[in-house]
Amino acid sequence: xxxxxRLTTWIVTRIGNNGSVHFDKxxxxxxxxxxxxxxxxxxxYKSELHLDSTEDRRELLKDLTGMGNGGGGSIIFxxxxxxxxxxxxxLSPLGNSSIVSQIEDIVRSAVHPxxxxxxxxxxxxGGWVVIADIEPSTLGPYMVESYKEQRYYxxxxxxxxxxxxxxxxxxxxxxxxxxxxxxxxxxxxLLPIRxxxxxxxxxxxxxxxxxxxxxxxxxxxxxxxxxxxxxxxNYPDHSSVDFAARSMHHWADGIAGDDGINGEEPRCLIRLHxxxxxxxxxxxxxxxxxxxxxxxxNAHLLYLAWFWDEFRLHRPVELExxxxxxxxxxxxxxxxxxxSTDVVQPAGVNVETVSVxxxxxxxxxxxxxxxxxxxRRFCDRLEQAFGRASAKPLFEEGWLYGKSGQNTGxxxxxxxxxxxxxxxPGVRHGSFDVAGQVRGAGDVCAYVVDGVLIDxxxxxxxxxxxATGSGCPNDFLLTGATTxxxxxxxxxxxxxxxxGIEIPHPTGRWSELLLREVLLTVPTY
Length: 525
Fold this sequence. Notes:
Blueprint: H1 3-14, H2 26-34, E1 43-46, H3 54-69, E2 73-77, E3 79-81, E4 88-91, H4 99-110, E5 111-112, E6 116-124, E7 127-135, E8 143-144, E9 151-156, E10 159-162, H5 165-179, H6 182-188, E11 201-208, H7 239-245, E12 249-251, E13 254-258, E14 268-273, E15 278-283, H8 290-310, E16 317-324, E17 330-332, E18 340-342, E19 354-360, H9 362-365, H10 368-385, H11 392-396, E20 398-401, E21 407-413, E22 416-419, E23 427-431, E24 437-440, E25 443-449, E26 452-454, E27 460-464, H12 515-519
Parallel strand pairs: 1-2
Antiparallel strand pairs: 2-7, 3-4, 5-8, 6-7, 8-9, 9-10, 11-15, 11-16, 12-13, 13-14, 14-15, 16-19, 17-18, 20-21, 20-27, 21-22, 22-23, 24-25, 25-26, 26-27
Helix pairs in contact: 1-2, 8-10
């Protein structure tokens, strides 16, 4: 086949209806074989992928970041090339069923700024073909920042090489020029939403990275679908956005709504722009409870993630989460205590707002572990405003939940898995050490990894509501209101696993085993 028809087929294969570059069907991948498409600057084939060693992971990061710094493109893992050429020959599926979650973990922890990418995984013949689509960053070149590396890489032709100092400078100069007018873009969108700064408000603001383009036509919007999206239908803390969405109406730049009734001042406001920018503001009660605040914020992030997914926004989004009016707020000293504490103000400073700024990919925000990570970074900052080190109890101890999103009746904390029974000490169902090993009858029967309880295969048995571990299944969502307070527990020091202990890699899948059956091997007290 001539080069031009092959190139035309390649372009048609890669461009979606929104202009983004991605493979969304296995047939599109097979077409590369039928039309004998070779590797190029924007296309790479990998017949194997090993992630066991530091060198393996470093090579993966070099390939991914090099593709992004080279202008963007796709890497297909599970594609064999013809001998002596770089032409697609046949699919060779990867055998590791947890490969996708491993790639996500490595990328999330070792690339700065965050890699702008998406991926599809197709099951085939008992294995997996994984396609990673990488876009350039608008924040500057990607750097591999882990596994004893702090370097920039770039793909040129069909090879990856370290970027020279001049190449890095040029890449940053281009990104800087693109962001020079970013503040004006925020102001032009009237974001963040302007509210009374003297009252406690939780304000979430989002602006996609440029180039901005219209993702929905306000003239054809069905307001009913905005009231309670399926994603939030069974979530216990959706009411704040639910009532505001019921009054959705057109406005100059998109659609908006609030929950003001009969002339009353609204407590919740929603604004969704045609280009995917958005703002949600909620008036909070003066006494802030961390668990309730985190749940409401989770609902707001879920709502925005649904909105972006519904209208196919694939560009990264700059997300700002802020709590204003801090001087008018207090927070309980512990989960039960009636005593409250005020914001701790440094001498000569009057802090009214605490905020975090995140760069997120819309599709990743739909994933529970990623969203929980955003929640934790904000909640830690909020706790620090009240003089405490972190929001650790909310993310590392408390009630355990199962696949249905319902409370299992078991608690995780103080190095124990236990069942609380009134005023007594409760029933101990197991204990875990600093390495997270849960033992039963002398053998390890499960592991605790960042708030997730996994079985020996790495599959999830149960988890905390806001678990941040990679074992947290992407689809996890609380479905029933929690009416029971979490009894106070004492945390045990946690550290890295002692030498010689191998913790299974969390798969992010639900286990077929039942939590209580697994714990039957552990003596109760």
